[in-house]
Write a structure and sequence with these properties.
transferase; Ribosomal Protein S5, domain 2; binds 4-diphosphocytidyl-2-C-methyl-D-erythritol 2-phosphate; 10 helices; 11 strands; Alpha-Beta Plaits; binds adenosine-5'-diphosphate
Length: 291
């Protein structure tokens, strides 16, 4: 097998709480993670030359060590002293710097791809252990599905698949740095913590309405202060029938959850017509079992 094609799925955070700060500056989190059916495509080809060559459809993305895909390939190439090189094509559809783990998911897919392409025999757990060196969300992007994420994001507990619904995604035309958002978060000032344990109960009972009532993300306090347009998009989603709407991750992407296809489609067209939302997608939850 000399060529491999992979899908790198985006995630949203149905709940994001920060419960502490470590001495190295990283934050301890409790998050409900959910993979959605929006993905980048990656193809990897073994070559005789020893280099790592990356091409992408987005001209502004780095194609060297600054790209997480390159770093993922290099990490395993160095560890296993692989002599062959790899040609990688990355077709991005997940919005960049959006709070949807696009880069982390690409890195996760590249680790999985290298493992297959060079028959390294690493288990999922062993790939996840390597993934955290590239980013806190990378182990989750290898696991996928609905999961509780703790520690800095690397302690993962798989949950039952969250109840099905429609997911409207809208990203305003601004980019947000995760480092900036965590760096400007003052934990002592967080007034409302999302009820992560309640959300876990709702997920195990298949209670969509209980779940959508509890959506919450403490990082909104930092990002919305900087970019009030995020709040405007949330309000538009609710106005158009979303059961709940919050910012994903460090932002600035906003998502809304819908139980009704027609309403979700109407909200999608409305959002596309607004010039505050630059990238808009209508999708649903990725479910490992449904494929
Ligand atoms: C906020 C979240 C929510 O899922 O996602 P995104 O918005 O990035 O998608 C994650 O916690 C982001 O994970 P990830 O994007 O992998 O973070 P990393 O690349 O490891 O770290 C970027 C920077 O964020 C800060 N950071 C990250 C994770 C964490 N638990 N505490 C932190 O303080 C650190 O300052 C770090 O230098
Ligand atoms: N494969 C990649 N895809 C997207 N961004 C990447 C990638 N590799 C490195 N980056 C850099 O990482 C930054 C954050 O990207 P991304 O992972 O999309 O953000 P987020 O985690 O907020 O969704 C970008 O500004 C980009 O320069």
């Amino acid at each position: 097998m000399n060529v491999i094609k992979l899908r790198a799925y985006a995630k949203i955070n149905l709940g994001l709480d920060v419960v502490g700060k470590r001495e190295d500056g990283y934050h301890e989190v409790r998050m409900i993670m959910q993979t959605i059916n929006l993905y980048d495509q990656i193809s990897m080809k073994k070559i005789s030359d020893s280099g790592i060559y990356l091409k992408t459809n987005l001209h502004y993305l780095p194609v060297n060590e600054k790209n997480l895909v390159y770093r993922a390939a290099k990490l395993l190439k160095d560890e296993f002293n692989i002599k062959h090189g790899v040609d990688i094509k990355l077709d991005k559809r997940i919005p960049v710097a959006a709070g949807m783990a696009g880069g982390s998911s690409d890195a996760a897919a590249a680790l999985v791809g290298m493992n297959k392409l060079f028959n390294l025999g690493l288990s999922k757990k062993e790939l996840m252990e390597r993934g955290v060196k590239l980013g806190a969300d990378v182990p989750y992007c290898i696991l996928r599905g609905t999961a509780l994420s703790e520690g800095i994001g690397e302690i993962l507990t798989p949950l039952a698949p969250a109840p099905e619904c429609y997911v409207l995604i809208a990203k305003p035309g601004i980019n947000v740095s995760t480092k900036f958002v965590y760096g400007n978060l003052n934990i002592t000032e967080i007034k409302e913590h999302p009820d992560i344990d309640g959300m876990i109960d709702n997920i195990s009972n298949g209670d969509l309405y209980g779940l959508t009532n509890k959506l919450g993300n403490v990082l909104e306090t930092v990002t919305i202060k900087e970019h009030p347009v995020i709040d405007t998009i949330k309000q538009e989603m609710i106005k158009y029938g979303a059961l709940g709407s919050i910012m994903s991750g460090s932002g600035p992407t906003v998502f809304g959850l819908f139980d009704n296809k027609k309403k979700a489609q109407e909200a999608f067209y409305h959002m596309k017509g607004l010039d505050i939302a630059k990238q808009v997608h209508l999708t649903d939850f990725f479910n490992q079992k449904r494929g």
